Hints:
This protein has helices spanning 4-17, 79-97; strands at residues 26-31, 40-45. By secondary structure, it is α+β, with helices and mostly antiparallel strands. It is elongated and about 75 Å long.
Amino acid sequence: MPNAGIYSLYRREAAALRGMPEPDREILGLDLGQSSDPAAVAVVRRVELPAGVVMPEEAEPEPVPEAEPAQKIYAKGSQQWLDQQTEATLRAFYAEREGKKP
Length: 102
């Protein structure tokens, strides 16, 4: 971020004007999710670069490999679970009928 230095200065100055200490360097994020969506917690720490170290402006980030989609796990007896079981049973039935293993 090319304007990180001035942004940091303004943050410190604004905190000083309000009589507050320097803003925290750690931030906590919480996503409570829903019944079929797990909760997530993120703790982020601000890191200052040592004096004399300059970030290249056009640094290419390393590519992130594609993740395989996670298998959905539903509560036993729920409608989603029943649908999943029915689909697996039908898939096994047709695979057996064609002489293939599921």
